[in-house]
Amino acid sequence: MALSDRTPGIRPHQTVGRRLDIAWRYAFPAATSVLFMLLSLAPFGLWGQAALLPVVALTCVWFWSLFRPAAMVPPVVLLIGVLLDLVGFLPLGVGGLTMLATHGLAHRLRRFLSRQGFTVVWLIFMTVACGIAAMNWALVSLLTLTLVPPGPVLFQAGLAVAMYPVVAIPLMLAHRTIADPERA
Amino acid sequence: MIRPSIQARHALARLTLPAMVVAAFGLMLVGKVDTVLVERARTAVYDMSAPVYAVLAEPLRRINKAIAEIVGLWGLRDENARLRVENEQLRRWQSIALTLDSENQRLKTALRWIPDPEASYVTARVVADAGGVYAKAVLLSVGPRHALRKGQIALDERGLVGRITELGSRTARVLLITDMNSRVPVILETSRARAIMAGTNGPWPRLQYWTEGTIPKEGERVVTTAEANAFPANLPVGTIRYNANGIPEIEPDAQLRVLDVVRIFDYGLGGFAPPETPSRPTPGRR
Question: Most buried residue among A20, B58, B98, B256 by CB atoms closer than 10 A?
């Protein structure tokens, strides 16, 4: 819709199928983020699997905020954060704040990072993951009035950095193909 | 349709992030004030997703089993030798146990012992990890017309697993004994010293506040005590082990890392309020 306003030219007829296709491409980032988050809880029986959920949420929010901010708007980020709180048994609000912080950082660094290669984005993500883990730990400690052990969040940050290519490369491929609204 | 000017739209777009941050703080406040609401929202989300996990559980279990079997093929010879030795030992123990059991029965008859009431139980499948990063808990898939209550006790085939802390219409959440908010009154089997088993979120809960003058021995068995009316007496919990810093810990009997099916027992106990959700642990001595 916004596309046709801005650029003149000949366009295919707006059939129902095409509209659905466009809608799907716009919804792709949020929908897959939620799906991956719920899938990360499936009983795989992996050691340390509990850390997978926040890692998946963080990577998805970071990636789409950076490369497709139009589809990862703050209300969607907040919803993902609330889902993270609910299914990840965090005090309510922690997931929302950390995810919004991730989104804000990605948004700030967007202009710079869009010109960089994969490795630089990964390196910056490493710093962001550590910062978000520290924020998560501080918020949970504050809200529960106990010093929760920092081990799990350190593991979480490490896992986020290690898992980044595993999550981000398929997302990047999808971003250029099946999730690209321009290709609808 | 009236469309706002470009400037207005930009201003609005710029305001959404701060507005959402304020909303997140608001949610934090709601979470602090109304824990029941948050708990309901949680169980609602899990009630919705649990059937999917239950469906996924079976094929995933098969895959895990196949992988374990392939891995197991490597160590088959050693495993076989170890099992032979263990079997030999177990046979000896079995004969001892049978003798003791019959002797116990005879003594109980002689004493006109009032037997403990038989506990009823239901079996439920573990469908997901429900602990998150800061807690140790599992999610059980239970039928829609279950009669479970908070505070009921979960055991696997070897020992104590934990207690039910949250109940949905199709799911139940069991807080494991390894969770940092878990405290279980226990008794050391040989010295009969009372103690508290406190979870640390690590794989081995700590032993605390044992009776003065007794020293927990490495390998000593630990069972629950009926004190505080939260648990029935003599449920197997684990064995004592000392960690590298010389602090006594408990090696749980239950296989908490590979929980598959647990039994939920109804002992009709109600002496202890069920533990609070880990989102609001009570600040206290640790």
Answer: B256
| Two structure tokens written together for B277 | 């959700």
Say what the ipTM of the complex is: 0.82
B contact residues 149-178, partner A, Cβ 8 Å cutoff: none
CB atoms within 10 A of CB B204: 17
Q: Where are the domains of chain A?
A: 13-183
Residue that is written with structure tokens 């009630």 in the block: B47
Please judge whether B27 and A82 are an interchain contact, meaning their C-beta atoms are less than 8 angstroms apart.
yes
User: Could you report how far apart the first and last alpha carbons of chain A are, in Å?
Assistant: 12
Give the pTM. 0.79
User: Are the C-beta atoms of A144 and B179 separated by less than 8 Å?
Assistant: no
d(Cα B92, Cα A31) in Å, to the nearest integer?
59
Q: How many Å lie between the alpha carbon of B39 and the closest alpha carbon of chain A? A: 8
Angstrom distance (rounded) from CA B9 to CA B3 = 9
Q: What is the pLDDT of residues B128-151, one digit of tens each?
A: 887 777 888 888 888 788 888 888
Burial B247-269 (b: 16+ CB within 10 A, else e): ebbbebbbebeebeebebbebeb
- CA of A91, closest CA in chain B: separation in Å? 5
Q: Which of B235, B261, B236, B249 is nearest to B202 (CA)?
A: B249
> What digits encode the pLDDT tens for the residues B253-281?
998 888 888 999 887 765 555 444 444 44
Calculated CA dihedral for residues B228, B229, B230, B235, nearest 10 degrees:
110
CA B5 to chain CA centroid, nearest Å? 57
Q: Please state the φ and ψ torsions of residue B208, each to the nearest 5 degrees.
A: -135, 160
Q: Do A90 and B134 touch (CB under 8 A)?
A: yes
Q: For all residues of chain B together, what is the average pLDDT?
A: 85
Distance between CA atoms of residues A74 and B22, nearest Å: 12
Bridge partners for A137 per DSSP: none
**Comparison of pLDDT for B113 and A56, the residue scoring more:** A56
Q: Does B56 touch chain A (CB under 8 A)?
A: yes
CA A5 to chain centre: 29
**A181 versus B55: which is more confidently predicted?**
B55
Least CB-CB distance to A89: which of B21, B32, B279? B279
Antiparallel, parallel or unpaired: β B248-252 and B261-266? unpaired
Which residues in chain B have their CB less than 8 angstroms from residue A77's CB? 20
How close does chain A come to B1, measured CA to CA in Å?
14
Res. B75: pLDDT tops 90: no
Read off the pLDDT of residues A144-181 as tens digits, 9 standing for 90 and up. 888 888 888 889 899 999 999 998 888 888 888 877 77
